[in-house]
Design a protein that fits this description.
- The structure holds 2 protein chains of 2 kinds.
- By secondary structure, chain A is mainly alpha-helical.
- Chain A has one domain: ABC transporter involved in vitamin B12 uptake, BtuC.
- Chain A has 15 helices and 2 strands.
- The radius of gyration of chain A is 21 Å and the shape is globular.
- Chain A starts with a helix and ends with a helix.
- Chain B contains 13 helices and 4 strands.
- In chain B, the strands form 2 sheets. Chain B has a two-stranded antiparallel sheet with strand order 1-4. A two-stranded antiparallel sheet of chain B has the order 2-3.
- The two termini of chain B are about 40 Å apart.
- The chains are: A mainly alpha, B mainly alpha.
Chain lengths: ~350, ~300
């Protein structure tokens, strides 16, 4: 929750200091200025496990209690997953309904590489990410071919692939995936520092590290020439093709990058929730990512993160407040309303009011 | 031999179910470019309404009434969604999809809140719960009912599209919406009509799905919807007959693969989809210029056998 509040408080602070400093530091400070908000947010988030603050209704225990830290970790993972998904949806204009396939692939792949191949956590995760990237390359190439049917063809084909994966997981072939029960984390393969209630802070920091990685990759790549081409594809694909760039190659690049980040996210999800759940493989899981991105504000720096954190927090907490309805009913209705009332997402609302 | 007969007839029944869902989807998508994710939600609500009716009345009259109630529920729900939600976002395809996505999440959750998450048995009248001997195979009676209803619906849609004024507008709208509008015809009314028609078919499919599976659950519609999407892609939006053929293929492939390939019918369908997608000549790889040139020089194959 701190993540949503801090950015608004800080941007004003460094502005006067730039004016005051003599010319020598001018360039350096100006170059550093865009980094102040992320660094401040990161600092606050990194220090959360040291805070014993008690927030009555919003949290069940103090901030640094295992329950709260677990909730925060989950929020951060989903913030990062939403940001990775936005690489396709908001930045390139690709509406994929198959992102869950890669997240579940990361969770189940790592778990199975540990149990079936006897690998440690790191080699297992590495192997899964490499295989996941290769799978994304092949499936992405197939899915993007359907774009002749309009961008909706891509959406439907990715959905079908994800559904196949989901069915495969629930069928429980040879007892591999655990069916509807999922798989509990294979603790023997994981370093002790990431296992158990007393180490929730470490898992939380891992989730934070994943968010930092995804934010670093997404923000860097979108500022580079490839990112500009993605944006151009989103706005006018024909023009990109006429200008001599290959929309197919760039879209495939965005797809593979986003999918690889999702596979890695699956690994982190496995560690945070201490298990692989079949829910991560369902198309509905992808739809919730889409909802997070749109709620927060697609194609923006902070929107997907804010949306992911907020959505996950509400999804987890609404059940605990005992309202007598499914959390998804409230969140789904909220989302439908947001499409009409806040077309640019929550972050755009804040900007409009302050401007 | 008897297994093959059973598999074929069951596959036909499943294909009939897919056709009922996919035909509405294909019409909506063809006319309005809306990928209607709420279609599964229409089906879910309809099947619950039908279930309540069938439970209350009971027997064969109960089922007939349930079919009417289910169809009407789908029709009304779809019409309301189109008039209240989708219409305001006219021309903004992505937002329209997002709204239907939101509905597809919220509506099953609502159903789950009211009737619980567990699957419930759908009351099947005695006349439809038995089997019939065909070439030595014992085939459940409801498979024939499904196929018969799907054939009737196919004929009905065909007549509607080819013989009525609104069918003409819908066909023309699918082909070139801007041109129809330019001719002074109010296409938005056709939108509502097609949406409601799709909802009614989804509702009917829900009732028949209840018979086919013998049960109902809040997420039944959503899982069927995915296969309906597959049917729409494989059918390629050429005509309503192509949707029917594609539904038939998907249903049969799924049943055969389920039996002969160790229960992997769903995967076989996705492989089929990938094969169809890859073998289709048009692709995103060519630049728009070459695509345009190809379109200008080659005769249009799309409209050759098409009705929709």
């Amino acid at each position: 929750m701190t993540a949503t509040r801090t950015p608004r408080a800080t941007p004003a602070a460094p502005a006067p200091s730039v004016k005051d400093t003599p010319g020598a530091n001018h360039g350096l400070l100006r170059r550093l200025r865009p980094a102040t908000v992320p660094v401040a947010v990161l600092l606050v988030l990194a220090l959360l496990p040291y805070s014993a603050l008690d927030i009555p209704v919003l949290l069940d225990g103090p901030v640094n209690s295992p329950g709260s830290l677990q909730l925060f970790a989950l929020c951060l993972v989903f913030g990062a997953l939403a940001l990775g998904y936005d690489l396709m949806f908001g930045r390139t204009g690709l509406l994929s309904f198959g992102h869950a396939l890669y997240i579940a692939g990361g969770s189940y792949g790592t778990q199975l590489a540990m149990t079936e191949l006897g690998l440690g956590l790191l080699p297992a995760a590495l192997l899964t990410v490499v295989l996941g990237a290769l799978a994304a390359l092949v499936l992405g190439a197939v899915s993007l071919r359907t774009l002749a049917l309009g961008s909706v063809g891509f959406a439907m084909v990715t959905l079908a692939f994800a559904q196949a994966g989901s069915i495969y997981v629930e069928r429980n072939p040879g007892g591999l995936t655990g069916g509807e029960e999922g798989l509990p984390l294979y603790v023997d393969g994981v370093p002790d520092a990431l296992v158990g209630v007393q180490n929730t802070a470490n898992v939380y920091w891992l989730a934070l590290a994943y968010l930092v990685l995804v934010a670093g990759v997404v923000w860097t790549v979108t500022a580079r020439p490839a990112g500009r081409v993605w944006q151009a594809i989103r706005d006018n694909e024909q023009r990109v093709a006429v200008l001599g760039r290959s929309p197919f190659a760039h879209k495939l690049g965005a797809f593979v990058l986003a999918s690889s980040l999702a596979v890695l996210g699956g690994v982190v999800h496995l560690l945070v929730t201490a298990g692989a759940t079949p829910h991560t493989s369902t198309p509905e899981f992808t739809l919730t990512l889409l909802v997070m991105v749109v709620l927060g504000g697609s194609g923006t720096r902070w929107g997907p993160v804010v949306g992911g954190v907020l959505f996950t927090y509400l999804d987890q907490r609404l059940g605990g407040w005992d309202l007598g309805v499914e959390p998804m009913l409230i969140l789904g209705s909220l989302f439908v309303l947001a499409v009409y009332l806040a077309p640019g997402g929550i972050t755009a609302l804040g900007r409009r009011r302050s401007a | 031999m008897d297994t093959l007969v059973l598999l074929t007839l069951t596959g036909l029944g499943l294909g009939a179910l897919y056709f009922l869902i996919a035909s509405g989807l294909a019409l909506i998508f063809g006319l309005m470019d809306v990928l209607n994710f709420a279609h599964g939600a229409f089906l879910t609500v309809s099947v619950y309404a039908a279930w309540r009716t069938a439970e209350t009345v009971g027997g064969m009259p109960g089922l007939l009434l349930a079919a009417v109630v289910g169809t009407l529920t789908g029709l009304l729900l779809a019409a309301v969604v189109e008039l209240v939600l989708v219409r305001r976002l006219y021309g903004r395809v992505k937002e329209q999809i997002l709204v239907t996505v939101g509905l597809s999440l919220a509506v099953p959750a609502l159903v789950q809140t009211v009737w619980g998450a567990d699957a419930r048995p759908f009351p099947v009248p005695d006349a439809l719960s038995g089997t019939v001997g065909v070439l030595g195979a014992r085939v459940p009676v409801n498979r024939f009912l499904l196929v018969a209803v799907a054939l009737l619906v196919l004929a009905g849609i065909h007549l509607f599209l080819s013989r009525t004024r609104y069918g003409l507008i819908v066909r023309a709208g699918v082909e070139d919406r801007a041109m129809v509008t330019a001719l002074g015809i109010d296409v938005t009314r056709a939108f509502t009509l097609v949406f409601a028609l799709g909802g009614a078919l989804a509702g009917l499919a829900g009732v028949l799905g209840g018979l086919y599976f013998g049960s109902l659950s809040p997420h039944q519609g959503t899982s069927l919807l995915v296969f309906a999407f597959v049917v729409v892609i494989i059918g390629g939006l050429v005509s309503i007959t192509s949707v029917a053929l594609s539904a038939l293929t998907v249903g049969l492939v799924q049943q055969y693969a389920n039996y002969y390939a160790g229960g992997y019918g769903d995967l076989a369908v996705v492989v089929l989809l990938a094969a169809v997608v890859l073998s289709r000549p048009a692709a995103g790889t060519g630049s728009p210029l070459t695509r345009l040139r190809r379109a200008l020089t080659a005769p249009r194959t799309r409209s050759a056998g098409g009705t929709a």
